[in-house]
């Protein structure tokens, strides 16, 4: 009787192990999945493009090269990690969140126009390559953010991990801010609320009262607040502040917004299901 119970228990353990192995295998990604990023940047030497992706826990490959339009990007290793090390930002049931920071180069032509990219080609250290959807990434030619004369210049600013960013600007001459806009084709501005110098509080972009008039040396403070505190998208872009001076000269200034992704297991499940058009589940 005891021997029979032993073999039954052993059989159940084997069946359980087999089912768990098959379940884990069913959750494996054939290729890493990149998050949907919202990035606007310029092709300057000091600028790096940081991209976030989900991959399998046992994936030992590294990204060796990316191709965005006619631009090539090569990873820049952090000095605190060895070149062959792999760093996981977060770990989930079957997957991990990683990032890669690349410096972009244009080897094809000296003349570059604005690029609006939704996908890229990714090359891995194990010889694989894949086309990856990356959200919306806008890349301007070198020097795009360099302005000869800033009439609305940033004095201070800061942010927090819960999606709140603030900027304080000073007017070097009397002016009017007439338009506040986001750079993307996708209307992500609906995800944010704005407060301006404590007077207009938690407004949507379309409900802001414009123009905003500033006398010389006066300050205005913008606070940008992500409505949904679940940060599943990496954001790195400037909000555009456009207007004219009292002398009729147009100007453009930038209020930069940055937010790193923080994913729950539920977020991971949803992203994978949407990106693979399947339901990998937990």
Automatic annotation (TrEMBL):
It comes from the Bacteria. This is Uncharacterized protein. It comes from Sporosarcina highlanderae.
